[in-house]
Amino acid sequence: AAKGDGRGVYRFYSSEMHADAEDRRQLEEDLRGALANDGLHLVYQPVVSSATEQVTGYEALLRWSHPKRGLISPTVFIPIAEETGLISQIGEWVLRTACRDAARWPDSIRVAVNVSPIQFANPSLPTIVMSALAGARLSAERLELEITESVFLNDDADTDAMFARLKGVGVRLALDDFGTGYSSLGYLKKAPFDKIKIDQSFVRGAAIKGNRNSAIIKSIVSLAEALSMDTTAEGAETHDELDMIRQLGCSHVQGYIYGKPMPVAEVIDRLNSNGTRAQPEGFRSS
Ligand code: C2E
Ligand code: MG
Ligand code: MG
Ligand code: MG
Question: Complex ipTM above 0.85?
C-alpha cells in the first residue's frame, strides 16, 4: 500500500508539474505577443526629496495586462522574461518608452528604469541606452538606471567595465533593493553609484517595529553620505513611516504616501496642476 501511495503521490505531483510547465510556456507565448502588440505599458511612481518635498523623479514600472488573466505582476513575468531571453527586447522597449515619456517632463525631473542583470551582462547595453536617449532627445543625466546587487554575482572585469561604460554615457546609477542580497560593502567602494535605494522591508512598519530597522536605515544613510551617494527609502506608506525616514536622514522617499505608480497621463496632469511639488496622500488640496 505504501508503494501504491508513493506512486499515486508521484503521479499527482508530476501532472501538477506538467501543468506548471504548460502554464509557463503559455505565459511565455502570451508575453511575446504582448511585446509585439502593445500589451505592455509603463506606470510611474514619484520619488520625492526629503529636504524640499519636490518630486525629483519618477520610477518606471512595467505592467502587463493580460487579455484573460488581467494584470500580471512584474515579479511574476520578469523572471519568465529573464529565463527565456525575452528580457532583452522588453528591457529595450522599457528604456525607449521611459525616455520618450520623460522628455515631456520638466528638466528637473528624472526617470529611473530598472535594468535586469541579464541586460547588464549584454555588452551592447551602453549603445542601447545611448540610442534610447538620442531617440527621445533626453539628456543622459536625466536617466537613472536601477541595478540590483545580483549583478555582482559574477563580479569580474566585465562588471567593472560595464559600470565604467555606463558612467561614460553620463547616466546615473542606483543600487536597488539594498539590504536584501549580499550587501557586500566591497562593491560600494568600487561601483560608481549615485544612489542607494533602501529596500522597503526595512522601511515598512519600521516606525512600529522600532529600533532594529531604524538602526539599519541609519547606518546605510551614514555609509551613503560618506560615499557622497543619495538614499531613497522605498515603500513608505504612512505618515509615521515618512516622519521616521526623514528623521533618519534619507535624502529621498518613494512610496504610496506620495503616490502609487500611475499612467504617464496622470503624471502630466499632476505636473500641470501641482508643478513639481509633492504632497503626502490624504493632504492633497483639490
Ligand atoms: P522595484 O524596482 O524595487 O520597484 C519597487 C516596487 O515597490 C514596485 O512594485 C512598486 O509598485 C512597489 N512599491 C512602491 N511603493 C510602495 C509602497 O508604499 N507599498 C507597497 N506595498 N509597494 C510599493 P512593482 O511595480 O510590482 O515591481 C516589482 C519589481 O518588478 C520591481 O521592484 C522590479 O524589480 C521589477 N520590475 C518592474 N518593472 C521592471 C522593468 O521594467 N524591468 C525590470 N527588469 N524589472 C522591473
Ligand atoms: Mg527599482
Ligand atoms: Mg526596489
Ligand atoms: Mg524589488
Answer: yes
